[in-house]
Hints:
Strand order of the largest sheet: 1-2-3-4-8-9-10-7
Number of strands: 10
Shape: elongated
Oligomer: single chain
Structural class: mainly beta
Distance between the termini: 67 Å
Strand content: over 45%
Largest sheet: 8 strands, mixed
Helix content: under 10%
Amino acid sequence: LTVVNDLYQKQINSLYGFASLSYKNFAFLEVTARNDWSSTLAPQHNSYFYPSVNASVLLDKAFNIGRAARWIDMIKVFADWANVGNDTDPYKLMSTYNNSTYFTGSYSIPTITLNDALRPENTESLELGLETSFFKNRLGINATVYQTNTTDQIINLPQDWASGAGATVINAGCVRNSGVELTLHGTPVDTKN
Length: 193
């Protein structure tokens, strides 16, 4: 019977702020700001800031469209931008000896080359959209265009075992996701029952 007992410790300290503004009940702005300090990243890179901004305008109220065309319930345009940071698991900065399961009281070195200069992962996203509602909310069309870029991913890069380890921890990569979402919703038949 082999018993393995591991203890992993990680600490994140954070500050968060939020502001919400509106103008004449048709224009809205929300801003958030957060800063994290993570124990799992290199001391020179362990602080990372990520803000977000959300803005929307109800065009039907801003231009009194609903009064001229009573079949229009809502026309809203919006834009969202966010930047998000991310840390990693503990103990990826410096090599330490691990308790070995082969012999009691023995130790082994890690099979991954660790990195004492790890930076936080970063994801930046932008979204633009339109939301509509017509005929007393019986018909609506929504459209959204989005793009997300993720950089400095923390990955285990395979390497030759001749170096003494099978992989090394690095910051790398740029992954881009983008697309268009279209939604049509409605209630074609509405009866009393």
